[in-house]
Structures are given as structure tokens and as C-alpha cells.
Amino acid sequence: MQRFSALYLVASIFQMSCLIAQTGYKENTFEKGIGKNHRIAIVASRFNGLPEQLLLEGAMARFAERGIEILDEDVFSVPGSVEIPVVAACLAQSQKYDAILCLGVIIRGATDHYDYVCNHVTHGCQKVAVEYRIPVVFGVLTTNNEQQALDRCGGTHGHMGIYSADVAIEMAGLISGLSKGEEYGQ
Fold first, then answer.
1. Which range of residues forms the domain containing residue 102?
2. Across all residues in the chain, what is the average pLDDT?
3. What kind and span of H or E run contains 102?
4. Is residue 18 in a domain?
């Protein structure tokens, strides 16, 4: 049985995104449905401190920029990334939100614990999305060290908080449109 880590999964998704960008694929959105009418929850881990705070700040700035109000009551802080899926499930079950943005940082240590945490969070978020048919955006960084995390929170490798907020907005519009029977695409 071949073992894939969450880092490999994230890298594969990134490579696919680059390939899509190179081929001229245009993102599909429901422009009418994107914006102020969608309610988005954020579940943010705080275990790794600064990188996670930067992810949250980037996401909040992007939502504000796009005219989407995120209230304090829509932001749920959890002790670590392992706790993200259960809170996401409770939020999905509440049916109050059009999308759930999960933010966190998992940094490799000297033991296998990293692999277990990555797998738990990845599969947990995926299960919530499929079970409740709600976008659960995986804005959880899986890195080898803190510097790699910081590089992806506004450093040399972009800002995963901003990117994840954009994904949450697009997916909220997409799923909302599909559930209303709207035609998808541009």
C-alpha cells in the first residue's frame, strides 16, 4: 500500500493549479451569487502561533476586500489542527454557513506524529465537505519547519490565507448556484 502524506497531496493540488493556469483555464464562478449574501465561517488553529495568525489576518483582509463581512461570531479558534474537523462538522450541521474555511499550520517534528495529524485533518475536512455538501476549504499548511510556513503566509511563496479566502468565496458561489439549479460556467 502506497502512503501519501498531506504535504504530497497539497503539492499535487498546487501542481494541478499551475497546470490549469498555464493552459488558460478560466475559473468558473457565479459572479451574481458571490459576495455579501454568503456567510462564511473560519476555523483557525492557534498551536503554531505567528504563522496561523498571519493566515487568519490574510483571509480576513481578503474577505473585507471582497465585501464579505466576517463577524467575530463566525471565527472559531481551536487549540490545534486536529480539532479543526470536529468544529467544521458542527458548523456544517448548523446549516448557517455557505462555506467553512479551515486554517492551520502543521510543522514536521522528529516523530511520526506529523503524519498522523496531517492525515487526520485532511480526511476529517474532506469527510465534512462530502457528508454535509458544503465547501470546507483546506487552508492548512503542512511544512517541514516554521520558516516554510512563514514563507506561505505573505512571504516568498505567496499567502495561503488570501488564496484560501478566494477559494471559499468561489466555492460558496458555486455550490449555492448548483443547489439552485443555475447553469455553471462562463
1. 35-179
2. 84
3. strand 99-107
4. no
Here the CATH number for the domain that contains residue 46 is 3.40.50.960
This prediction's pTM? 0.81
Residue of 163, 103, 143 whose CA lies nearest to 5 = 143
Q: Please state, in angstroms and rounded to a whole number, the distance separating the CA atoms of residues 72 and 77.
A: 10
- Per the domain annotation, does 21 fall within a domain? no
Q: How confident is the model at residue 185 (pLDDT cuts 50, 70, 90)?
A: low
Cβ within 8 Å of residue 162, ≥6 positions away: 58, 59, 61, 62
Task: Give the separation between CA 155 and CA 148, rounded to whole angstroms.
Answer: 9
Q: Is residue 20 part of a domain?
A: no
Report the alpha-carbon distance of residue 71 to residue 78 in Å, rounded.
Answer: 17
113 is catalytic: yes
Total number of domains constituting the chain: 1
Per DSSP, 82 falls in state G
Active-site annotation holder among 38, 113, 120, 157: 113
